[in-house]
Amino acid sequence: MGSDLIITIVIICIGIVLFIKDYFSIDTTSIIIMALFIVAGVLSPKEGFSGFNHPATITLGCMFVVSAAVFNSGILGGLSDRIIKLAKIHYSIALITFCLIAGMFSAFVNDSAVVALLLPIALTVCRETKIAPGMLLIPISFSALFGGTCTLIGTSTNILVSSYAQEYGLEGFGMFEFSLAALCLATIGFAYIFFVAPLLLPKQKKEQDVLTKEAQKYITELLVEKDCLDSNKPLHMSKLVNDYNVQILDISRDRFNKKSIGPETFILEGDVMKVLVPPKTLNAIRDIKGYRVTGDKRFDKSELEKNIYEVIVPFGSRLTEGSLRSLNFRRQYNGSVLAIRQRGEILYEKLADVNLMEGDMLLILGTEADVDTLVEQGLVVALSEYKHAKVNYKKAIPAIIIAIGVVLAASLNLTSILISSMVGALLLVATSTLKPKEAYEAVEWKVIFMMAGVLSMGTALEKTGGAEKIAQFIEQTLGNYHAQVTLSILYLVTFLSTNVLSSKATAALMTPIVISLASAMEISERPFLVAVMFACSLTFMTPVSYPTNTMVYAPGNYKFNDFLRVGTPLNIVIWIAATFVIPYFFPFQ
After folding, report:
1. Most exposed: 151, 244, 247, 287, by fewest CB within 10 Å?
2. pLDDT 10s digits, 544-577
């Protein structure tokens, strides 16, 4: 075993630990891995950075633009009224409606965007029908995953594996080449979601506004009296902020609310401050000279000009780049975060120092315009109240025509998906369907950087001969078994790995290995490649295994065990089914 291969294995192991421990964001971890390969001399700078101009990366970026044009036109949101009306009839009808819509749309546009669109609509239905959110949101996420496997552009993993195959001189996959196999698995999956999942999903009807009601208990008013020690001091130097970590939400001065509050805002005698403070801290504040709690009544949100909004941090949001303090959230976006639901835990204290994560649910005190700004910039998805989207037909018609053209051009083999998606993205800008700035903002750059980074792992494995050696080991170990058994084991290893690593990292590692394995076994590589595609996308066991699972985690009031209880049997059923379905449509010889 050469030194370069040993270094490669060590770096990949470091990467796996970083992915599991979640020390850094996924894209940062991916770039760290790429940098380590370059610094160690395993890859040249040109090879290391080749992921940025890889066909899979470019195709994915262009498809983000195409998807954004369809969503921005409002054509999908325009269906919301019909969806709500239909879903309110009965839980079973709501379940079938949302799951079928999630599956159909996810086959052609970004699945995370589809779930982001359906989340507030589903929560609206839950509020009006008393259906527990937990009974709908996991099925919506799982359905989106099944839909994404049905076409080449359904998930980034499909694009990645197909592009890898072409790099190795193999034939890439067609737009609908594996659709029949995927539909077979989807049929089994939907049967499970409709008939079995409702028996396993959490049935308690938790109040949708429980987070809001709990946060309101922490809000009260303080009057600054004449002898207050903090008088004429800026907020950041006050005892109230430094010693008691009190968050100042609003200051009423001379009967007027102060519009802008920052660290340099001075505290003056007579100020009435709306503050967020835990009950035990409030008792301590009562003993501070110069502050008086103005009554012990419960907070009434009608007393403020601002309202309370529930939002979720979607995958790729810039809010995950640091804490609220480092992001200067309050000054940048004019909103105050009252509470954070993170990985099942509700946080009310020291929120400014909390590092936000994808899937976090935030309770924001602000104006409607403030929240709209956050939504428009793709930083959050609003959950509190669904707004009916108006269809802009001037943009909707060209957006849909161009999107259909992208799909048809690739499916009819008129050109590659890379070329058709690139031309489609350019046409959307050229026809003013999207402004250049909108096209740029539509690209989830976090995903692009992650894709570029993880591609270096596959490149390093191939260059150092690691993929071939691993394939030889697998072939020697499983060589006496039928190829179908080998495929089944590879599928099992892949979907288990995806539940702790990212789907793209797993695909980048497994694709060169299965290509080398097929060569060693002298059989077709296609069934193995399809197995990697499906196993990387159809992951249901944890809330962090796929972005859509993470998105529904907090709004559904789920616990980690809910995903294990519902997702594990489904993963096992699909694994067994895939063992027979994939070879049927993609023979080994």
Report:
1. 287
2. 788 888 888 888 888 888 999 999 999 999 999 9
